[in-house]
Amino acid sequence: MNHRLVFRLLGTICWLIGLTMAFSLPFAWPSVGSQTEFEARGFYALIAAIVISAAIGLVLRNWGRGAPDTLYRKEAMAIVGLSWVLATILGAIPYLGAGVVYNVVDGVEQPMGIADSLFESQSGFSTTGATVLTDIENEQWVPRCILFWRSSTHFLGGLGIIVLFVAVLGQGSAGKALMRTEMPGPKSEGSHERMQHTAWIFAAIYCGLNLLLTLILKLEGMTWFEAICHAFGTMATGGFSTLNASLGGFESKAIEYTVIVFMLLAGTNFTLLYFILIRKPGKFLGDPEWRTYMTFVAGSTLLVMAMGIWVTTDFDLRGDMSASEELEAAFRDGLFQVVSIITTTGFGTADFDLWNSFSKALLIVLMFVGGCAGSTGGGMKVIRHILFIKILRREIEHSYRPSVVRHIRLNGEPLTDPDLPHSILVYFGLIALIFTASSQILVGIEPDSTWVAAGQPVSNKLVDSASAVAATMHNIGPGIGIVGPTRNYALFSAPSKLLFTFLMMLGRLELFAILVLMVPSFWRDR
Question: Is the pTM of this model over 0.85?
């Protein structure tokens, strides 16, 4: 292990994070031009975080001075895993320094502690969108500059800190190792042979879509602040909003349909979006993963509507509606929530916790599907499910026809990697193991009083815990029950929040880049 090279590159990443914090500083001054005392706290907290990030970066760069530039897979995995740990810690400093209030208990305001700050920071960087903040519209609890930093962590985490790092700075031959580790998955091809060029293309598409969505949302009635924050949350498939009611608080059909389109784009493989830009739509439309992804969206939306969500939701609260209006509202709410969950964005326009059991169960299933490989979406990825079904079908056939040799094909082409079936099965096995173990741990460490305080039945503890684990492990945010779309994670104990923080990091880096950090032999010299 080339430890000094790891230190040097981690130091540069610390500088990148500190630099990004500086863009939140102007939001400490309201539009009238004067800075309130509360915004000043956020301003100085960001300054302190920038200084600390720069200092840590300087120390790490100094430790890594003169290190050989050769970067192997072990070093790449260490850099990716440790960079997310560092980002979580550095990103939590503004919340702690500003004294952000996340909840009120018995009339007493509760400032964010270490566990709360780490949770919120990792939720932003991992684009999960889960939150412990109960009133983000209260500027005396959450300064605007901190709220903007909160959304900025989505922007940084969307394509991955390392992808942006490679795009901006480049690392020569090391870029390939960093990119493959940051964006793991069964698809290894890129839109360009050179990894730095690929990173630039992905970053350009990502930034371009963010800019386009910001302009559209502004034209549709949002302020610039709201438009930028929601663009960050949409294209990163993160879900942080500036309103307590999420996107539903704007009560705008145009905004909801716009965000649906951009969430679908964010959950699409960016390589396919690149093919659209270079006028090769055939490769886009012919991609089996994208076709399956859209089939999941269309089929799930129709199933949710067919099971009658318009009967069990709060449509009656919207006033008298004609049959056509009710049908359109059912379609829009169903489509929005299906897209929001499968892309792991987590925005909300309706309280799907009030839907019938079938619809809620279907959304939970979609939590385990996720977006396409090479997208900003989380989850297990559609391509893995396609390959998993093909592997199972081959193994079943092999049980009664052992002499037949049959290659797994994707879009008519045989997959020649002999390790692919094994890696897919291991990934599914690890997901099942971590999900089961984490759900059981959460049930054990979280007291029943949490459900009592939330006004939820204690009898739902097992299901709610499993939902919370699935929502954080797959970077979705809202779940059902105690973590439903109108609730948050504020009432959970500190150990549970740290467990969620770990799960969010695991899910964002698809397990291995974090799990290897816990293996002692990983850190030994070659």
Answer: yes
